[in-house]
Amino acid sequence: MTDTSPTFTAVDYVVFGGVLFFSLFIGLYHAFRVRNRDNAEFLMGSYNLSWFPVSMSMLATYISAILVLGGPAEAYYHGMMWLIVLAGQVAKPIVAVTFLPVFYKLRLVSVYEYLEMRFRSRVIRLCGGGTFVLQIVLYLSVVIYAPALALASVMGFPVWASIVLVGVIGTVYTALGGMRAVVWTDMLQLSVLLLGMVAIIIKGTIDVGGPANVWRTSVEFGRTGQDFIYPFSLYERHTVSNLFLSSFLGVMTAYGCHQTMIQRYNSLPRLKDAYMALASNVPMSIILLVTAFFTGLVLLTVYKDCDPLAAGLIEKKDQILPFYVVEHLRDFPGFAGLFVACLFSGALRTTIVVTNGSG
């Protein structure tokens, strides 16, 4: 193994700083570009956003640094069964037929308005909104702290600095630019996230001799589905039935009645655009999850003869990807910066969910 002490070159700082700068710039641009700063503009983009950026934003809403770190680690250590979560995409056509037309026709800013309309009780609305805030606060504590801890342990980034940077930048560009800034910044950050993972796949695949070797090693180590467990069980870590049920219900909830999704559907000018945004979200979700999975198989091929966790070089499974970047990409200026930007893009994405409103 080579020296894995953290190094960040000037090019890495430029790449990383560039992502943060453009995130802030988008917020500033929309703050000064739009003079009419009423609630409809700030919260809903005046109901005239384009369907493709909104679709990308919908996908980015549930993509965090947890996927960047945890997805490859899951594939590396546990194999292909995790990909069963892709089956949850079948819930989206059901959302399109049931939830989407109802909420779009109501043109709600907050989904919790529906609770008050349906049950004629403001208390129920406030309870729903309060539950949303609690859930998001707990969620943010994980998705911000987890990548900060990984960066601190493997790449030398102070935990407090990562948390402060993510929180301040996400809050500033959202508060200044509103929904328009959120949607366009989502596109930027999702693009950076994908670019970072694809760059790692390309470099790693070349180093191990091509995709055929990656697949051969994955089969040899039993990561391609040989040990699938199909029946539903409360005593297994994962089964096909468990993963399908949880992903189906999760997608149904997230895309059918979650505040972040309803707000994005209603920011579009026509119901047809909302359908387009939801439909195009399906292949993009599949591409992103498969990319994370294949990244893990590439790492398995690289470290098949010396697992860093077993060797004591890392302490946790989700440090495998940062470790690879430090060990194998440190001599390529900009790669480390791109990876850190990739992680921060995932974390930044999730910090702005709470600004979407709770009711």
State the end-to-end CA separation. Answer: 53 Å
Shape: globular
Please, how many helices?
15
The SS-based structural class is mainly alpha
Tally of strands: 0
Work out the radius of gyration: 21 Å
Sequence of secondary-structure elements:
HHHHHHHHHHHHHHH
Arithmetic mean of pLDDT: 85
Q: Stretches where pLDDT falls below 50 for ≥5 residues? A: 354-358
Q: Percent of residues in beta strands?
A: under 5%
Largest sheet data: none
In percent, how helical is the residue content?
A: over 70%
Any overview of this molecule?
- This protein has 359 residues and is mostly helical.
- It has helices spanning 10-33, 39-44, 51-61, 65-78, 91-97, 99-106, 112-119, 122-155, 159-207, 211-220, 240-257, 259-265, 271-302, 320-328, 335-351.
Strand-helix topology:
Elements: H1 10-33, H2 39-44, H3 51-61, H4 65-78, H5 91-97, H6 99-106, H7 112-119, H8 122-155, H9 159-207, H10 211-220, H11 240-257, H12 259-265, H13 271-302, H14 320-328, H15 335-351
Helix pairs in contact: 1-9, 1-15, 3-9, 3-12, 3-13, 4-13, 4-15, 5-11, 7-8, 8-9, 8-15, 9-13, 9-15, 10-13, 11-12
